[in-house]
Amino acid sequence: MAKKPSSNTDPTAKWAALTWNDLTKWAGSTIVGRGRDYFRDKQVKKLAMTDDGEIVAWVEGTERYATAVSLDKKGQLWDRCTCPYDDTCKHAVATVLTFLEALKSDNPVPKAKVTDRRFVMLEAEDEGEWYDDDEWDDDEDDDFEEEEDDDFEEAPPVQAKKSAAKPKGDPIRTYLDGLTKEKLVELVADLNKSVPKAREFITDRQSAEATVPKALINAIRKLIDELCNEGSYGYSRRSLYGNRYDVGSGGNREKILAKLHDKFQVLIDGGHIAEALPLGHELIEAGNELVEGAYDSRALNEGIQKCLTLIFMALPQSGLPALEQVEWVLEADTLNDFDLIGSGLRAFKIFPRKPDQWSDLADALLQWLDPKQNKVTRGMLDTRVFADMCVNALEQAGRIGEIVPFLEKEAVSSNSFDPLVDRLMADERWGDAEKWCIQGIRKFTGDEYHFERALREKLIDIWRKLGKYDRAAALNADFFFSYPSVASYRELIRDAAKTKSPKLVRAAALRFLETGRGPFDTKKKPDPTEWPLEKHDLPVTKPSFRPEFPLIAVLIDIAIGEKDPETVLKWYDRPVPTKNRFGFDPRAAVAVKVAEAITASHPERALEIWRWLVVESISRSNQGGYEEAVTFLRRIRDTLRALGRTNEWFSLLETVRQEHKRKRNFILLLNTFDDDPIAEKKFKGAV
Fold it and tell me: Pick from 94, 93, 74, 101: which is nearest to 16 by CA?
């Protein structure tokens, strides 16, 4: 999400000048429409404005989100939101519309303090930190309508659950440091009585100090059982016979996982890593069942991964021999059906160790990966993941000379050629890299084509480094004639440009796209005046189907890339069936890019295509079609304005409005063409 820009010199005037066009340019018509719905449903609460012109609000959605929007000196909108959407979101649009409505109605907008906790949340979001909004008292968050004069609360000292470390100058820590032992005991005793969470934490710490923390282990197992009994779907359902049955409320899953994480942390901090290891395997088995049937498994998966990551990070400190650590990891992967251990495995891989510990880990992995051991994991991860861990361990241990021999053995035993070739290329051992690439390509065929293709791309790069452009072009030609596309055409032309006859290669490639006739379609050797490249002797993986020629879409894309509007129109105007077998006009797939490509050189034809696209889109009579039609109308408007024919645009817009006045949703979208300010009354400033 966007960062807050520098402060504005005159923010009120810029806000008051915003139009629907400005909002659509900023967020897109789809998001503007969704934001308008949130605005109409009054989902925006406690709107406020800072002295430098940034507006902030709570927006009720799937959750309650903190949202802020500001205007820079150029009138560009910048938004920040704690929702998971990566671009300008509907919450930001709803916040702007609510603010503009306040301007229009001359309703005063409260000032927001710099210490407003929503800014704390937004800053934490920008930094990638996790902010727990549950730390705040919900009683302070009554609706804005009920508490218009509310003075927004300041952020308390604890802002985010990022680290257990206390910041410098923490007033709570300073206060505790000044207490006597008796006063500290009294304070903890009071917390134990009055705060259930504190009582549970103290009890867990007490159990962790025992030689065998049975109570804490039992509590963890009980939470795992509760997690399973909570169900996966998160709602009650009715059977086909009308009987109501509960498949788990699901609302407590996050709380159970949070408790589970805390208890694992206490157990590990207490030095009981050996006791945590079997519990980790039990959690993986339980997680498999839950994730498999989950309606939305993302949050569940992440919660389980956080717990398991604690164990993976503690494993190097367990005192177990490196081989036993590796065996625990392998068993975890054997139990792992839904990638519950991915983040934990990464933590285990990069955990800081001494050189001798890295060496022990490398030896353990080498022993497990030895082909003579014939060990194969049955989990989500294959041996390549563990081979990568082994290479990392060898590097950290300073055993660099063992890496390539190890990767050579892995390439032969597990057909894992890519890591070896990458290593050889990084070391600039181009001859060896070429040899292993060719060996790998000969190994892979049929269903393993994606591995073969990756090696072919590496081989082409190697040949480029060696100056063997004829070979690189020949290999690219093989792929182009098997899988013709704009990308494969460009790769072929790139290498052909450094050969003796680039024009012949280009002509043959275009002829193939037009007719389907390639240089090697007959047993005869190609005429060198038509195809100058020698055919390589590597195996060729043929596609399972042959496309219909000419490949008009590819030819149009190539002409667009080469800035040749005449050729673009030549292929676009080629007669085609009015409708294909699915009922869609095939021109629609390329019409947009064609119109964009010819607007400058053939504006009338571009306008013709845009108008046709508007009609096609509206005829679908659904929201998606309406939104597309608005996009195409906007292109018509911009083109007519560039031609100095603004009156023609207003006439067209009114005609479209009258023809489709019964389509309410479409008419609402047409309102986004309004160039007048949304806030019709002059803004008098915030109070």
Answer: 101
